[in-house]
């Protein structure tokens, strides 16, 4: 007897995207590096996979705070003081470190208030639908993160009209908003840093267009939190300089190396989210040890040590970008720790990633559907704790891969200067 459950699994294996990805797995089993098991890690960002040590250029822990003794110590202290989990929804109660970290996050960002979710995904799935009723609309950039799309699907199921506009194009945003009239208010959802390309959106222009059309911005700055702008306050503060008419989402799991996501906005809006956001009300919170660890992270971010970490990170980004341009690789981004090297066809992208791995360097080969079809990239994530010899080793390996796989070549002969926003030393 075949169980309906197993029949369903077989049906799903043959459906749409799953079939496409399974075919890729089957066609190039040796090239696909997915679902890897990491057997061990070191404090200089090496990791062991299938018995082989490689430098890991696939970590979002950009500042290396996951390896910081104060952060690790605070996490251990959190377990002793609070146990592993407090086991209740925040609709009933919150541990003191949760409230303290939210206050400190808001103060650091310069926003009125903040609320923490267990992940950025759960923030987008909970907050985005909570910001609208069926009189409103949500319009998102076509390449906004998948969790924004999921948040829109929840809103859509409740009768909210949703649409997309062309990537980073304020004129197209204007067109889409006009086409949706009449509506009460519009939420315009974008990423603060596009995670596959390391590129920024034109936030000021998008805000102007949203505002002029009775809307506000919703910016998922997961990859900007902690590493964009002089104090690491993120893309919104760096490029717009205020939070008026903007909801900011940030990550606690990437540069801040702990766990969770947050939404920061006006006090009034945050209080409304606490009442309307289902992932917050019906789900559990970030475990207390991660909140005590976050207190240590915020201590570091607001101390001169942050300046030193950013110097190390920015120096690695600048060095990698300058030298990769000298190799005439086609780069996307270049101003944040995610720098993508364009490869093109799917199979070639997988092959390039596999060759780098065999030379001792792990980078993520990103292919369709995460990027447009035929525009695969090697996604390099630079960290403050990568030793210079590792960055140089990766560059040398890329130079070889460029010849073997015939990577596309940039036409620029002289590499342009790399201008990163300078990390300012905080006042004593
Ligand atoms: C823009 C953006 N939003 C959301 C997420 C998901 O974050 P989380 O792992 O906290 O759910 C990511 C992950 O990379 C991201 O890049």
How is this structure best described in words?
This protein folds into two domains: about 20-55 and about 305-405, Aspartate Aminotransferase, domain 1 (Alpha-Beta Complex); about 70-300, Aspartate Aminotransferase, domain 2. The strands form three sheets. A seven-stranded mixed sheet has the order 4-10-9-8-7-5-6, with helices on both faces. The chain has a four-stranded mixed sheet with strand order 1-2-3-13. The protein is globular and about 55 Å long. The protein has about 425 residues and is an alpha/beta fold. β1 (about 40) and β2 (about 45-50) form a beta hairpin. Helices cover about 40% and strands about 15% of the residues. The chain binds pyridoxal-5'-phosphate. The site of pyridoxal-5'-phosphate (PLP) has 13 residues, from α5.
- Indicate how many domains the architecture comprises: 2
Give every kind of bound small molecule, once each: pyridoxal-5'-phosphate
**Rg measurement, Å:** 22 Å
Widest sheet: strand ordering? 4-10-9-8-7-5-6
Q: Quick one: overall form?
A: globular
Work out the strand percent: 15-25%
CA(first)-CA(last) distance: 73 Å
Order of helices and strands: HHEEEHHEHEHEHEHEHEEHHHHEEHEEEH
Number of strands: 15
Mean pLDDT: 94
Number of helices: 15
CATH T-level fold name of the largest domain: Aspartate Aminotransferase, domain 2
Question: Ranges with pLDDT <50 over ≥5 residues?
Answer: 424-428
Measured as a percent range, the helix fraction is 40-55%
Largest sheet: 7 strands, mixed
Q: By helix and strand content, what is the structural category?
A: alpha/beta
């Amino acid at each position: 007897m075949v169980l309906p459950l197993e029949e369903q699994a077989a049906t799903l294996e043959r459906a749409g995207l799953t079939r496409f990805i399974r075919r890729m797995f089957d066609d190039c089993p040796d090239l696909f590096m997915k679902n890897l098991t990491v057997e061990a890690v070191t404090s200089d960002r090496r990791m062991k996979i299938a018995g082989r040590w490689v430098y890991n250029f696939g970590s979002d822990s950009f500042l290396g705070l996951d390896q910081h003794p104060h952060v690790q110590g605070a996490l251990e202290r959190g377990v002793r003081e609070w146990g592993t989990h407090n086991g209740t929804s925040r609709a009933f109660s919150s541990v003191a470190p949760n409230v303290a970290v939210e206050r400190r996050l808001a103060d650091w960002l310069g926003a009125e208030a903040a609320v923490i979710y267990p992940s950025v995904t759960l923030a987008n799935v909970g907050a985005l639908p909570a910001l609208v009723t069926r009189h409103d609309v949500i319009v998102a950039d076509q390449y906004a993160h998948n969790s924004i799309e999921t948040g829109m699907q929840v809103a859509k199921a409740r009768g909210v009209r949703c649409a997309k506009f062309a990537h980073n194009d304020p004129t197209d945003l204007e067109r889409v908003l006009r086409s949706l009239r009449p509506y009460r208010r519009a939420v315009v959802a974008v990423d603060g840093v596009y995670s596959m390309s390391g590129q920024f959106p034109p936030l000021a222009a998008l805000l102007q267009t949203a505002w002029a059309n009775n809307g506000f911005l919703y910016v998922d700055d997961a990859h900007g939190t902690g590493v964009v702008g002089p104090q690491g306050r993120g893309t919104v503060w760096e490029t717009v300089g205020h939070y008026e008419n903007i909801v900011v989402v940030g990550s606690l799991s990437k540069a801040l190396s702990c766990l969770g996501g947050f939404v920061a906005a006006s006090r009034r809006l945050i209080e409304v989210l606490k009442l309307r956001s289902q992932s917050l009300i019906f789900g559990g919170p970030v475990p207390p040890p991660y909140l005590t660890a976050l207190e240590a992270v915020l201590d570091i971010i607001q101390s001169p040590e942050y300046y030193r970490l950013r110097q190390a990170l920015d120096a690695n980004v600048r060095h990698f970008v300058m030298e990769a341009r000298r190799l005439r690789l086609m780069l996307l981004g270049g101003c944040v720790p995610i720098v993508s090297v364009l490869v093109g066809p799917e199979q070639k992208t997988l092959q390039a990633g596999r060759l780098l791995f065999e030379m001792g360097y792990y980078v993520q080969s990103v292919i369709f559907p995460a990027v447009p079809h035929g525009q695969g990239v090697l996604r390099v994530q630079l960290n403050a704790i990568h030793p210079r010899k590792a960055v140089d080793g990766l560059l040398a390996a890329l130079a070889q891969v460029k010849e073997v796989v015939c990577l596309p070549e940039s036409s620029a002969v002289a590499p342009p200067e790399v201008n990163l926003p300078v990390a300012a030393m905080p006042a004593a």
